[in-house]
Amino acid sequence: MMSNLTSTERARAMLITGAGVLIGLTMAAVGRNDPMGAHGWIVLLFCGVLFFIVGQKLYDAEPVEDRSVSYYDDPTKIGILLALFWAVVAMGMGVWVASQLAWPDLRFDAAWSSFGRIRPVHTSGVIFGFGGNALIATSFHIMQRTSRARMPDQVSPWFVLLGFNLFCVVAASGYLIGITQSKEYAEPEWYADLWLVIVWVVYFVLYIRTLARRNEPHIYVANWYYLSFILVVAILHVVNNLAIPASFSGAKSYSAFSGVQDAMVQWWYGHNAVAFFLTTGFLGMLYYFLPKRAGRPIYSYRLSILSFWGIVFFYIWVGSHHLHYTALPQWVQTLGVTFSVMLLVPSWASAGNALMTLNGAWHKVRDDATLRFMMVAAVFYGLSTFEGSFMAIRPVNALSHYTDWTVGHVHSGAMGWVAMITFGSIYALTPVLWRRETMYSWKAVEWHFWLALSGTVIYVFAMWNSGITQGLMWRTYTESGTLRFSFVDTLIAMHPYYIARAFGGLLFFTGACICFWNVVMTIRRVPHHTPAIDYPTTSEAMEPAVPAAE
Amino acid sequence: MDMTHEWYVALSKSFGLFWLLGLSVAITAYAFWPSLGGRFDKAANSILDDEDGPAQPTSTKAEDKACR
Ligand code: HEM
Ligand code: HEM
Q1: Which residue among A255, A344, A436, B8 is least packed, with the fewest CB closer than 10 Å?
Q2: Digit-coded pLDDT (tens) for A319-354
Q3: Where exactly are the transmembrane stretches of this chain (chain B) (predicted)?
């Protein structure tokens, strides 16, 4: 991989990682009396290892590849492997968290292994580590293919991918040593947040530069979804993380907001993290890989445009449904309800568009587990958005809020939609990227599919039951008007469901491990395969980026 | 100018309303504009076989020249 970099590019990479080493050293020195010091060492190690990997190859021969005839896929490959690595780590953590809830002794009495610390390792690990790497990798793939243009340079994609992973490592390790700013899905402290801003800006610029080189007149809709993901996440991240560090030698910082404003900003961020991290980017995946795998163009391209703008407009306003019956003004809550209900329309338009695309290809869905992953993802997308719109209605939320129903909703979206579409895309992408004939084992894909589906169904049903039981028990009164059940009573009622959830999660996790193994074996064992049309098209067949008429 | 609560409410009730309405109309018009149909169809079909490498423009960009 390094041999595809020119010596200037290698030198530039060494410069960047070298600067990273210095930053790490500074953090370690300045923060030596604070947990931040530990992060300094982690940054130093991360950048140091990369520095030496590049350094060893610095004087190797220059590459001979003709860059004008191929896409740049090396970062995509590493990104897919990193996503799978994080999937195994973070879903393993999820199983542990679930088991701790069922059997609290599994904490083993250490500080770092307490529920409050490993839970965010799970959430950040799956959302950012698994989801984020998968999004970055597939976006690199899709932006080049749909633009029929190669990325403009070879250093910035690595900077984005590895810089993002540095953020993930700093985040996860920070939780274990007790660093958090206590904002859900935005737990990392100020220096990690600043770092992510830099990485994200480079990502955005790289995307735009690639699109600017495109040889297709129209930007395919998947790119719109990816761009909205990059752009809006940047805005959300910057605003929600506005904070004043208590000192520059320590991790602690204080949010710029307080009270109900803080809550509103956090859930404006929080729900749009769901929208623009866990939804739009993955819709980009769906709009590219599903039609491609089914061998049919998307059912209605016009509908995909319309639902894009619908999703982007409506989602921004729904955050307040996380704060029903709080100090937040009633009208803001009502605004959130209204937009949440309206959001169902573009959401179902997307899910329906995906399913209609499969009309006429159902035999493929039956035979091909990869396509089935994508089909099931679209179904769960429809289910979880319906559920979400329903839960956003205030009286329904009175029952669901604080209960496991929310956790059930989260995982029908996260496992059923996000993880399923990602696994489907990974199976579609791996043979293409590594130029292999097929996946190593189709049986294993089939196993993964059924493990993932049954794991999700068990998980979600367990949480629905547990959540509704819990919610109803909390609001049951005796004849004299006192509460019928104590809190401990509800815990006892939930215990069997917690065991079921841990089991469902274990199935899902096993599937993810099989996927990782299958991908690695595909790379190592499956014979090389040259695609039928592995030659560049001439510009005769293409239109220039800006058609003459415009 | 005072950035008061009332000021924001007035802004969103006047400008905000028409901005959202206008955008919805504009987007719907764009999505269903008849003459754009061909372009959309072409885009929808364009992804089905795109594994053939970047398009070859008549003049290769400098950064894509063979390295050497
Ligand atoms: C192996 C499968 C999984 C297991 C066993 C698992 C388990 C758990 C557990 C036990 C919790 C804590 C619930 C609580 O505090 O009561 C949780 C929370 C969460 N998980 Fe998972 N999970 C899995 C997969 C995933 C995936 C794939 C994603 C995302 C792509 C995800 C995203 C989340 C999120 C966002 C939360 C926070 C929910 C909230 O605050 O309401 N999980 N998970
Ligand atoms: C139309 C779309 C959706 C709507 C209207 C919606 C609505 C809701 C509502 C009302 C809650 C409960 C808030 C509370 O009581 O605290 C919630 C929680 C959540 N939803 Fe959704 N949802 C939608 C789609 C999704 C999807 C597709 C995903 C995942 C991929 C998702 C992930 C989450 C997460 C992670 C939470 C938990 C947040 C937390 O408390 O930590 N949602 N959603």
Answers
A1: B8
A2: 999 999 999 999 899 999 999 999 999 999 999 999
A3: 15-33
- Rounded CA separation A404/A468 (Å): 8
Cα of A122 from ligand 1 centre, angstroms: 7
Nearest CA in chain A to B32: A302
* Residues 6 or more apart whose Cβ sits within 8 Å of residue B25: none
Instruction: Specify whether A10 is located in the same domain as A85.
Output: no
Residue of B13, B64, B65 best to disrupt the A interface, most CBs of A under 10 A: B64
A180/A176 Cα distance (integer angstroms): 10
Residues 21-60 of B with CB under 8 A from A: 23-24, 27-28, 30-32, 39-58, 60
Same domain, A31 and A176: no
Nearest CA in chain A to B48: A292
Could you tell me if A248 and A215 lie in one domain? yes
For A364-399, write each residue's pLDDT tens digit. Answer: 999 999 999 999 999 999 999 999 999 999 999 999
Residue A139 and residue A27 in one domain = no
Angle at A43 between CA A59 and CA A520, to 5 degrees: 65
d(CA A390, CA A397): 8
Q: 10 Å Cβ neighbour count for A77?
A: 18
> What is the dihedral angle through the alpha carbons of A11, A12, A14, A17, rounded to the nearest 10 degrees?
180
Say how far apart CA A82 and CA A88 lie, in whole Å.
10
For the whole prediction, is pTM greater than 0.90? yes
pLDDT digits (tens, 9 = 90+) for B6-59: 888 888 888 988 988 999 999 999 999 999 999 999 999 988 877 777 877 554
Mean pLDDT, chain A, as a whole number? Answer: 94
Does residue A347 line the site of ligand 2, with CB under 6 A?
A: yes
- The range of the structural domain enclosing residue A39 comes to 1-56
Minimum CA distance residue for ligand 2 atom 28: A413
